[in-house]
Amino acid sequence: MPYHEFECSKVIPERKQHAVIKGAGEDLTSCLPKGYLNTIPGTISERGCAYCGAKHVIGTPMKDVIHISHGPVGCTYDTWQTKRYISDNNNFQLKYTFATDVKEKHIVFGAEKVLKQNIIEAFKAFPEIKRMTIYQTCATALIGDDIEAVAQEVMDEMPEVDIFVCNSPGFAGPSQSGGHHKINIAWLNQKVGTLEPKITSDYVINYVGEYNIQGDQEVMLDYFHRMGIQVLSTFTGNSSYDDLRGMHRAHLNVLECARSAEYICDELRARYGIPRLDIDGFGFEALGNSLKKVGLFFGIEDRAQAIIDEETAKWKPQLDWYKERLRDKKVCLWPGGSKLWHWAHAIQAEMGVKVVSVYTKFGHQGDMEKGISRCGEGALAIDDPNELENQEAMRMLKPDVIFTGKRPGEVAKKMRVPYLNAHAYHNGPYKGFEGWVRFARDIYNAIYSPIYQLSGLDISKDEIAADKGFVTRRMLSDAGLSDEIKSSPILTEYTGKYDSVTDLRAKTYPEFERKTAASAAE
């Protein structure tokens, strides 16, 4: 077996089965690490719990809902504002989070009374919000608080409100993926089919597994609307609570993130006969194929092709420019779950980079199978890594950039490795044709940032030239621009000649590269 043993984890022999290096001719069966298992005690895992998966990933993007956690305040705080689930409801769900703030006395004597009091106080504080989701946590699950009974009591007393209860305490699954499953099925059981939606098109879909990170969803909705498709609801980005109650009337479930939302799609197919179609909004080829599949289902593939042709003509030249400059740069693709296979092949094929490692904190073995299959020989795949293993992998692989979450990303920065936020993005959205170019631009800016180049110098011993790391300044000098522009530290002031810094680089960098190569040859 091609297992990889980390030096830092030799004291925990079981960890050897959770990391593999893809060898020559390896088939997927022999190079899969174990996954979606209970965390091994002592490994200092960084994965999220089932409560986090339910509230933070799936539930919170709903825009017109009071999201209240029944438990200690720490659970609530840990799942608040770390992802950019934007909404057109003035970002209500990002601005506010609610908790019953359970204390030791409540654990001893019960916390149902304090829960009811908090529910009523929250509705009174925000009278324009008439919908609520209550999330169970470990503490109140262990003492057996009957949340459903309290919620029903409030709804009987306040008939204008509606409350959804999600029983997904942290221990409900090996990782946050267990919480995804819990809230998917709970929503279907409690709320789907309780409201009849208004149908305005012959082509009606639910857009499932989409959370509107930095506006991802809006990009895709624009494509669907241009095709004449009515999006009945989005599960759950920028979505209305009541819209999601009418999911049962869609003609097709279009699934983006299979790891977080395939459960509700499969049940909607079993209970209501709604077909499931998996798509991918990342990358020119994958996105184009996805739009064509949706178009083919409804018999309007010509509309999809028109969008693909228009957008490709507009954005492909810019993507190709970045691809030439990112070719063979080494990338560690360390997101949470499905992005390891959504991105692995696309960034290699369309941006020229080389994925040298993939990992997942909560994915199943099916996620690893798809991710590893899209990587080349020598790629390191890790399940549920910890900080020490991350550091050892970075020292071994020497990547040019890492795509991961904020916590491991901050560690990477301390090791002088640039990182991009794979969960909340740096400058998103990243979906769509323009978004994919934006992603490439962020990668380029991270790798070629003068600050990161300077961070690799040790001022205690390295000889430092005055212009060391200032690639942009040397680029301008070699490109033969005017003294006025060369002397200005704020390049974007010169909008008369250049539309943006990116435009300036695009017009001057090729000449700089040619002169640099000639100088090196001499």
TrEMBL record:
Domain Nitrogenase/oxidoreductase component: residue ranges: 49-447
Does the keyword Secreted feature in the UniProt annotation?
no
InterPro entries in alphabetical order: Nase/OxRdtase_comp1, Nase_asu, Nase_comp1_asu, Nase_comp1_CS, Nase_Fe-Fe_asu
Q: What is its EC number?
A: 1.18.6.1
Q: Which Pfam families match?
A: Oxidored_nitro
Catalysed reaction equations from the record: N2 + 8 reduced [2Fe-2S]-[ferredoxin] + 16 ATP + 16 H2O = H2 + 8 oxidized [2Fe-2S]-[ferredoxin] + 2 NH4(+) + 16 ADP + 16 phosphate + 6 H(+)
Do you know which Gene3D superfamilies this protein is assigned to?
Nitrogenase molybdenum iron protein domain
Instruction: Report TM segments.
Output: none
Alphabetically, the GO molecular function entries are:
ATP binding; iron-sulfur cluster binding; metal ion binding; nitrogenase activity
Q: Which cofactor does it need?
A: [8Fe-7S] cluster
- The entry's keywords: ATP-binding, Iron, Iron-sulfur, Metal-binding, Nitrogen fixation, Nucleotide-binding, Oxidoreductase
Q: Which family does it belong to?
A: Belongs to the NifD/NifK/NifE/NifN family.
Tell me which NCBIfam families the record gives.
alt_nitrog_alph, ANFD, N2-ase-Ialpha
Quaternary organization: Hexamer of two alpha, two beta, and two delta chains.
Name used for this protein in its record: Nitrogenase protein alpha chain
